[in-house]
């Protein structure tokens, strides 16, 4: 039988290196924008993620700046299925993120030397393209289907 994760379990699961799906409300009658992103999270802290190479002009950047709210979902796509969604308030954005902030994210997905090179190039390249976002998880929605696969 599926069960809801505790907040602590949800935080630990979000801290694992999954691909996150960022969802932000749009204006008008279109459905919310949902896009995959790399991210970093430590239990009890802020969720950080950045927009990609078109960060400064990306639709998601403009929507996040205007709406200041987002949902962020991660999942385990193979059995036993599990997902966590954090409903968040945007706390800050940084148009010139530091090497450390970018590296904290890229190192979860790339070999460390490559992750460091990406972070250094972004932070010192003269024309940053990433916008780093910090969001506070306010509410958790989760399910763990582990008992159903036994």
Automatic annotation (TrEMBL):
Q: Which domain of life is it from?
A: Bacteria
What is the protein's name according to its record?
A: Pyridoxamine 5'-phosphate oxidase
Show the InterPro entries listed in the entry: Split_barrel_FMN-bd (IPR012349)
